[in-house]
Amino acid sequence: MLIGHQPKPFLLAVEALTVSFDGFKAVNNLSFYVEENEIRVIIGPNGAGKTTVLDLICGKTKATSGSIQFRGKELTKLKENQIVQTGVGRKFQTPSVFEDLTVFENLEISYPRGRTVFGSLAFQRDDAVKQRIEEVAEMIFLKDRLDTYADQLSHGQKQWLEIGMLLIQDPELLMLDEPVAGMSVSERAKTAELLNRIIKDRSVLVIEHDMKFVEDIAHKVTVLHQGQILSEGTMEKVKNDPKVIEVYLGH
Amino acid sequence: MIITSRFFNRSELIGFVALALVLVVILPLSLDVFRLNLVAKYLTYAFVAIGLVLCWGYGGILSLGQGVFFGLGGYCMAMFLKLEASSVENTKIQSTPGIPDFMDWNQITALPLFWQPFHSLTFTVLAIILVPGLFALIIGTAMFKRRVGGTYFAIITQAVAAILTILIVGQQGYTGGINGMTDLRTLKGWDIRPDHAKIILYFFEVFLLFGCIFIAQFIRLTKLGRILVAMREQEDRVRFSGYSVANFKIFAFCMAAIFAAIGGAMFALNVGFMSPSFVGIVPSIEMVIYTAVGGRMSIFGAVWGALLVNFAKTGLSESFPQLWLFGLGALFIAVVLAFPNGLSGIWADYVQPRIDRLLALRKSKSGSPWAGNSVADGAPAE
Q1: Which residues form a coiled coil (chain B) (predicted)?
Q2: Which fold has domain A3-249?
């Protein structure tokens, strides 16, 4: 394996990760490594365990065995909010924004300050906060919707808002679960543009089915099948892998 | 951008002025002392209702056991008052003078250790806040850290209410049992029973109530208030934004407990006794109904809910004692089905827009500011 002669430490090292739900191994002895500033896309058929892998990394699901190291820190022992504070951000498949709050307030909650009970009581909406929120709002095409309640946004706008909420956390590792699913063609193009802008200076782990989109952004692709890695490498390599064509791309 | 730095927005200001007018001017001028004392009793539930607005309305944590905290606050206050009423002089006919009468009836011959510090008023005041606060902290930590929430949490709070009632009734010698602590007389030598004391206590209670309203409003306006709302809808998103959801729930639950306890303590002072019938499941559910009727998202609405439901309860149960409980049940169902935001929701949806339109009309005619008229129209209508 690579471990012996790695040029620099990996940002994320997943090793021998296994999770079993009542005996069913959704993720089975999985190992993969993500480098700094790498954009990694995970693809695979339904039920391959893609979302479960993200759940394991962000702490939503507890691993049965194996290790997840982020900058040398063992994530499997941390709570979800502690994992976020080490610099891992996660976007869910369905847009999960706070619909009873405005776009501004949604972003403000994600601003990484005053995260304790008393910190949030003392939190002041100062210029630094406002400025950063406006900056991010502009990036996610919602600059003039800051006072709109999130339940009035379209599906695509909600997805953008959630991406913005991650962006304002400024995570070193960004995990996105199907960021363009359910979007219109024009929204999809805009999202690709947005993602290309925000993935600079950070590592990104993306789950996506849209192959054209994958080709556009991926540095490296990991194909999962039944909780295990079927193939890994550049898009070119993966696309021509006969095993991948058989279980996934051929359909 | 509409970012209000004001403490109350316009309609909240109207709500505040209307409530202050009713509680400080209209009711004291129009009611006799007996009825005013009844209002004081109703208002003790308003404290609980304000706590439930934070905890249930904002945080989404339904507690069906607020009677526990109301009771703990009430009993702390009652213990102090009972000790003062049980001076050696007052109790010289007992076989052990100087201890509360119910202890003497239960063959207890010395004041139990946990009663001793309640000789001190300072300790009592601290205990009214800290005992329920710590108890809520323990329950909250045990439940929320394990991610017990929703219906399960509500059922557990009910169980706690039932357990505490059984404990109080069972430990008759230490608690006064089913009869509770009666015959409370003086506070630091000041008789709490005559009419003028009732009036002073009423105003003191209204003062505390506004204190709690301000604290609740302050919390609501901080980022913590918005995190509570966020948590109610998307708990996971809050968690994955780097917050410990459990800690925020514990905070909301503790605040609700402390508000309830202040209400309980005022109950003991105003009504002059405390008993387990204000601790159990039924009173706890009634407290949730007050909040639901008033509007669980509105601090002022909750106060109106507590007042109006209790007025109705007194009125109806005086004339149709058997019908009252059915009425209460029907009211709850009606509110939940038809008006999920209670009276304050009706106000915001139907009354407020009309007032606004009227004012806009008047403003365009004369250019006069909005204040004044709406307050006078507003208060009784709600």
Answers
A1: none
A2: Rossmann fold (3.40.50)
